[in-house]
Fold this sequence. Notes:
Helix content is 41%, strand content 28%. By secondary structure, it is an alpha/beta fold. Among the domains are: 3-80, Chorismate Mutase Domain, subunit A; 167-243, 3-Layer(aba) Sandwich (D-Maltodextrin-Binding Protein, domain 2), CATH 3.40.190; 266-345, 2-Layer Sandwich (Alpha-Beta Plaits), CATH 3.30.70.260. Strands 1, 2, 3, 4, 5, 11 and 16 form a seven-stranded mixed β-sheet that branches. α2 packs antiparallel against α3 (61-80) and α11 (282-292) packs antiparallel against α12.
Amino acid sequence: xxxxxxxxxxxxxxxxxxxxxxxxxxxxxxxxxxxxxxxxxxxxxxxxxxxxxxxxxxxxxxxxxxxxxxxxxxxxxxxxxxxxxxxxxxxxxxxxxxxxxxxxxxxxxxxxxxxxxxxxxxxxxxxxxxxxxxxxxxxxxxxxxxxxxxxxxxxxxxxxxxxxxxxxxxxxxxxxxxxxxxxxxxxxxxxxxxxxxxxxxxxxxxxxxxxxxxxxxxxxxxxxxxxxxxxxxxxxxxxxxxxxxxxxxxxxxxxxxxxxxxxxxxxxxxxxxxxxxxxxxxxxxxxxxxxxxxxxxxxxxxxxxxxxxxxxxxxxxxxxxxxxxxxxxxxxxxxxxxxxxxxxxxxxxx
Length: 350
């Protein structure tokens, strides 16, 4: 045990405390939708009593109670701001988190473990919007998200096309020559394969890029680093050892913003999903409708729905308030099964 090792332990503990504090404030923000107001004196008394009963070690009960009074006061202040809430899958610092903050800089971003939980939270009204990845230039479509989009009642109200810039991140003060392993999501590791090989780094699969960054900050495994975003480095206090380590410079991900209701403003891009009968020319007939109307299709993807049945996604330029688009969709709807407009929106390219 040395002074330096003890200070490193304190840094790890501080990282966990800050992450847990953010998580507590987020949970408090979510409770606001289930209460008539932010003041609940009975609940505060209950929390303070519980805190006092658990203060049996070094911290005095008076100290912990005062600390929690301040935490609860901050939680109420956050709730009173009336912030919009945007859900995303992953942990803070994930690329989806960055996309959500880019779409609405004033909103609070709320992490969820699963994509389905993001959709469910928007549908129930617990949060206002969800941001989910739909396709990546290297990895292709995000199958799980697109499968949910086939049946969801939510509307697509925005899109973000964002570059994915991977960085090698390490705990503050780490000597880059001591790094032996890189932790990250399997897709990120695959996108940085040549960098890992050149630097003889072992790839260690982790559930999430931002999760790997948080783990490095909290646990500081010997010789360990994370592959994640610069945004994750800023959140978790990590050093950026090397930036732009992905093998391809064209690595981009496209995200959809989903909500319960369509926005009142006219968009300039639309997304739709439909099914075609299993006969020659079905898909061509739909594509021909849009071609003859002079409407540019920007995406055509198929996603398995049931054995032998595929859902087809199309994105096209234009507004659902434009007569040409309205007529084209009506014509397409007559040629296919279950043609459904997911939404008309503005897309931002970062």
